[in-house]
Amino acid sequence: MGDGILLKPKKPFKETTLEQVAGCLKYEEKAKTIEEMDEAIEQGIKELGY
In this predicted model, what pLDDT tens digit does every residue of 1-43 receive, in sequence order? Predict the structure, then answer.
């Protein structure tokens, strides 16, 4: 395609929601707070130089 290639799955996955697949994310530690997540995002942005 033009200046690249297009990859399509041979057999598309059935449409799912986050609630249906979140159980496969085996995280057994205490859940992070919104504040902790915001701090981590801010730190990542600073590390990228933005």
Answer: 678 999 887 887 788 888 888 877 777 888 899 999 999 999 9
Running DSSP on this structure, what letter comes out for residue 26? -
CA distances from 17 to 9, 13, 22, 46, 50 (A): 19, 12, 9, 32, 32
pTM of the complete model:
0.46
Tokens of 35: 């504040």
State the virtual CA torsion across 16, 23, 37, 45 in degrees, nearest 10: -50
> What are the structure tokens assigned to 38, written together?
């915001």
